[in-house]
Write a structure and sequence with these properties.
By secondary structure, the protein is mainly α. It has 4 domains: 146 residues, 3-Layer(aba) Sandwich (Rossmann fold); 114 residues, Rossmann fold (3-Layer(aba) Sandwich), CATH 3.40.50.620; 52 residues, Helicase, Ruva Protein, domain 3 (Orthogonal Bundle); 98 residues, Arc Repressor Mutant, subunit A (Orthogonal Bundle). The chain contains 18 helices and 13 strands. A hairpin with a 2-residue loop joins strand 12 and strand 13. Helix 10 crosses helix 11 and helix 14 packs across helix 15. The relative contact order is 0.08.
């Protein structure tokens, strides 16, 4: 596709409702990608003219959500820029000026205290970057009534302030959901009345539930804020959102943002509505966590551990633990439960695991005697590493006439308090000889108790 003839300026203009919907997050992402692809400018603008919902907390949901996704805006709240203010509530004087222009041009009339725009009653042709050529017939006032620009109480209507802000902020490309497609001809009429060149429009397919219904804010996965709480990695969610209506055309599901930026074209965005599949996002998250380098994984892990009150002696000791639990987890919120046994001396035992692996006896040998025999074998080790631990356990099992698993399970529960966890030998290596033998002794006592 040809390079835009003017410097690209895109924008994301959400209303602060207290929720950043995944549809809005995808809109922000596609605008960000397009701006980055063309070395342009990505603007964040908050449409906060609804005073009943205009709270600092609601605005923070938006900025926090974009920060979490890694979408850095070039102009907007917390950044500033040459075309501010970036909150609509602070732009009243600008709207008054533009309203005056329309009034002087004879485009306005009053209707029961409201200010309305007199449509020229024409057919409007839109060459959409995604949808192609669309013709709108606005000649019938019965089906296309004149739009209100300002309510009787003085508050502004979305259509007007949206157009004014895009003119003032020199937006070149309006990339938004297809639910705004019917608004676009009205906006084009306003651009024409104001003597301004409309931006290029690109209307993305809607995101629907798998059953074809529209996603509500109550649907699972609809609110972006639930993803960091659940322990998703931002890069995984960002990857998944890219695939809602677009694909790299080579069947890749994991794709880096640098590759997305290089390959992305608006005319390749799918026209069909996108089906939201949280299971696929969950799978992608597991893949990202598994393949993530340890430094990034640790960076994401620390807030979850701190929230759970887990402390560690050194960063290196934390990385050592995270390295062995990392392949097992699909969500970061699971980390505290897996990590806790390594950083406490007051081990908490899962009673069901104790009952199954420590209390019972198998093939004539009790769990206690097996742990005792294993302790003796481990005490004799001069090298404490995975290979030595595995060899000692297998040799002990053979001497006892037991299966390897009949020693592995009680050893795991005795050393971690749980029946599941990282590889046993890796776990024991990290715990160290002294702590392992101490925990085996406690396990023996529990087995006999």
């Amino acid at each position: 596709m040809s390079q835009p003839s003017v410097p690209v300026r895109t924008r994301f203009a959400p209303s602060p409702t207290g929720l950043l919907h995944v549809g809005g997050a995808r809109t922000a992402l596609f605008n960000w990608i397009y701006a980055r692809k063309h070395a342009g400018t990505f603007v964040l603008r908050i449409e906060d003219t609804d005073h009943s919902r205009n709270t600092e907390e609601a605005k923070k949901v938006i900025t926090d959500g974009l920060h979490w996704l890694g979408l850095d805006w070039d102009e907007g709240p917390l950044k500033g820029g040459s075309y501010g203010p970036y909150y609509q509530s602070e732009r009243t004087a600008i709207y008054e000026e533009y309203l005056g222009r329309l009034e002087k041009g004879g485009h306005l009339y009053e209707d029961n205290g409201a200010i309305r725009f007199r449509s020229p009653r024409e057919k409007v042709v839109l060459q959409d970057e995604i949808c192609g050529r669309i013709e709108f017939d606005l000649t019938n006032p019965g089906t296309h009534p004149d739009i209100t620009l300002r309510r009787p109480d003085g508050s502004w209507i979305f259509h007007f302030v949206n157009v004014v802000d895009d003119i003032e902020m020199k937006i070149t490309h309006v990339i938004r959901g297809e639910d705004h497609l019917s608004n676009t001809p009205k906006h084009i009429e306003l651009y024409k009345a104001l003597g301004a060149e409309p931006p290029r429009f690109a209307h993305m397919p809607l995101i629907l539930n798998r059953d074809g219904s529209k996603m509500s804010k109550r649907d699972e996965g609809a609110a972006l804020g639930t993803y960091p709480e659940a322990g998703y990695a931002p890069e995984a969610v960002r990857n998944y959102l890219c695939l809602l209506g677009w694909s790299p055309k080579d069947n890749r599901e994991m794709i880096s943002m640098s590759d997305v930026i290089a390959l992305f074209e608006l005319n390749q965005v799918n026209r069909r509505n996108a089906a939201f599949d949280l299971a696929k996002c969950f799978w992608l998250n597991g893949q990202y966590l598994m393949q993530m380098d340890l430094a990034r994984y640790t960076e994401l892990a620390i807030p979850f551990l701190e929230k759970a009150g887990i402390t560690w002696p050194t960063y290196e000791s934390l990385e050592q633990v995270l390295a062995i639990v990392k392949p097992k987890l699909k969500l970061l919120k699971e980390l505290p439960e897996w990590v806790a046994p390594f950083f406490t001396e007051e081990l908490s035992y899962d009673e069901a695991a104790v009952a199954k692996s420590l209390k019972g006896s198998d093939q004539g040998a009790t769990a206690a005697s097996r742990l005792k025999a294993l302790s003796e074998a481990f005490k004799a080790l001069t090298t404490w590493d995975v290979a030595s631990l595995e060899a000692a356990l297998k040799e002990t099992a053979a001497k006892l006439g037991a299966k390897t698993g009949e020693l592995v399970h009680p050893a795991r529960v005795a050393s971690s308090g749980r029946s599941v966890g990282p590889g046993l030998y890796e776990m024991l290596e990290v715990l160290g000889k002294e702590r392992t033998l101490s925990r085996f002794a406690t396990g023996e006592a529990k087995a006999l108790g």
